[in-house]
Write the structure tokens for this entry.
Amino acid sequence: MKQIAVVGVGYVGLVTAACFADLGNKVIALDIDEGRIARLKRGEMPIYEPGLEELVRRNVHAGRLAFTTSYREALDGTEFAFIAVGTPEGVDGEADLRYVEAAAKTIAETMREPLIVINKSTVPVGTGDWVSNIIRQHQREEVPFSVVSCPEFLREGSAISDFMNPHRVVLGSTDKDAAEKVAQLHLPLRAPIIVTDLRTAEMIKYASNAFLATKISFINEIANICEALGANVEEVAVGMGYDPRIGPLFLKAGLGYGGSCFPKDVKALAHMAKEKGRHPQLLHAVMEINADRRKMVVERVTELLGGSLEGKTIGMLGLAFKPNTDDMRESPAIDIAAGLQEGGATVRAYDPIAMENARAIMPGVNMCSDPYALATDSDALIIVTDWNEFKQLDLERIRGLMREPVVFDGRNIYDPAVMCRLGFRYRSIGRDDTCDCDQPAEEEA
Ligand code: UGA
């Protein structure tokens, strides 16, 4: 059993702490936010993540996981300190490292025994060296330490399973001994362990996220072309995905990527490149295509409603940037709602769990109690998030409640033929949605 400190109990920190505890280690998780630590001590989770509450409860109960606001308590007797604090986006798209800096300084001032400091937060290439300097400068007495980069590859909504079943563990360090010790912590996960230097490990994280974002923008571009040429993007993705050089994942066309990672990381990578005089053309195209997805929804819905949104009521089904999370950060829903409102529409929304978070950042959007209340007297519905519960709606009932039977399906969760049969004016992404009923329905409208 090893003793581990985790600094920062946000998304990554809390999952890392709970999972390492579950692997049999003694973990002390620290945050400077007293309210958050007090709530965690009462068993209240600061974020929604399937399975996390139970995992935390079980490990606290077993005495393997504890929470504190005291660096002294967290670091005493500890060989490993993970830094998992937030790295929000700065004004120019660069990562804002103020929390990493504060954590490194306080670790330096507090540590009394040799320590391996492990960067889990996504940080610009070169941050590991910078953290080393900060610790060196702020130590009260000289105590040996080493900095290792260990980027996280956790997806919100499946973070625990991603932690416990990683495709790889990346460790960056020039200190072989430290890398070996951190590798030992990960051995129970039985994943390939790749050891590189610090900067390369930091780059692997950015390159991975940028590549996945590129796949998404690529398939969205193909979706646009499919629409123009009468092909079906869903089937194109399946047909491409069987080629192992391409792979089937992250080829789901839709409203583009959101969340706390891809938008920020692609921008930060482009910023790092630009600062060094490089011109990251591909990354710029990826971001541009992604931004256009949100404008496209507003244009398509306007078209479906006869050219104007003035006086129309539009319901958004889903607000979170993806299902199984209440995270609203960079969600397409935010820009889409703003675009609809700008066009003169009244916007309402329903999401199974993200409405509370959404309220604060989406002024003027009326939250509804369920999908049927949302549909009542709406002129159009937009599927923004592909929650499973939306796939099983009573669409006939929805159709009957709406003022106009217009559905724009931004996630392709419905079958165009079924929607046509039910009498909807239905459009989706990268598919030919025309149906025999289209003509009369449009004449009626
Ligand atoms: C992402 C990565 O998948 C993780 O590996 C990484 O560790 C994490 O960022 C991070 O850097 O912390 P996450 O942001 O939770 O995880 O979400 P994803 O499941 O990757 O989805 C990101 C966005 O892409 C969502 O808006 C999703 O709707 C969209 N997406 C995903 C598509 O539009 N199409 C796809 O085929 C896949």
